[in-house]
Structures are given as C-alpha cells and as structure tokens.
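Q&A FORM
Asked by: J.P.
Topic: structure of Riboflavin kinase

PROVIDED:
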Amino acid sequence: AAAMRHLPYFCRGEVVRGFGRGSKELGIPTANFSEQVVESFPSDISTGIYYGWACVGNGEVHKMVLSIGWNPYYKNVKKSVETHIIHTFKEDFYGEILSIVIIGYIRPEKNFDSLDALISAIQDDIEEANRKLDLPEHLKLKEDNFFHMPESKLVNGH
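REPLIED BY: S.T.
REPLY: Here is the structure written out as tokens.
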C-alpha cells in the first residue's frame, strides 16, 4: 500500500553519472538522479521496481522502469533512483533534465544469487512495464503537460 499511496509521482531532475554498471555489466543503461532529487522523494515510498513514463529534455515521452532502493546485489550504502528508459538513445544525456511520472509498482527490491538472475528479473520487469503502460488509463499520462517544459528550463536546447 505504501508503494501506491504516492502514485502517480511526478519528478524532474538532472541526470548524473551513476556507478556505470547498468550499461556495462547488465546491458541495461539507467539514468541516475542526483542525491538531492533522491532525497526529495517521499521518505516512506517503498523501495522496489516501478514503471511509468520518462522524457529527456523536451524529447519524446518513452516507457520506463524505475528502481528505488539500495540495490542489494551491489550492496549500495546510499539509496538511488535509477530509470531505465525503454528506448535506445544514440548518445549519453548526462546533465540533461529527466522528467518522469511513476505510475505503478512491479515488485519489491530483492537480492539475487547471480548477475544472470538479476538481468533476467530486469528483463521480466521491462516486459511487465511494457504491457501495463499500454493500458488506456496509463497511456493518458504519457500526454501529461508535465512533459512539456518551458524552453527556459532546458539545457542545450534539448
């Protein structure tokens, strides 16, 4: 219940360099928010895997899967919020503004015995997000005005 109480949750912040593991080890690149953005999340929002919509700068809005938590597999000491946008970008977008709306909860955070098990779980999460975001009640949030930022807020004209 605590997972859903704050949803939909709208959030915007700069993309910062994370641990560099998503792309390299997992083949699943993620965009990381700064600590300030992570700290602005409701303190009682459940850790785990969520799905929703994401937009870089004033670009297109894409489906996304999001992890909130300590990534038990990697034993992080700081909570992180990592967004995997279900889209292939040609280049990195560090320093750009990422806008997200978190719509639903997939599963709690858990540890995995192996990297393969973790990758497999993430692939399942992506499939579930893909399916759920096709529902009409979720599609309408893709068009939310939140994703249309005034030009003055943009970085590098993106």
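FOLLOW-UP: Residues 115-132 form the longest helix (18 residues).
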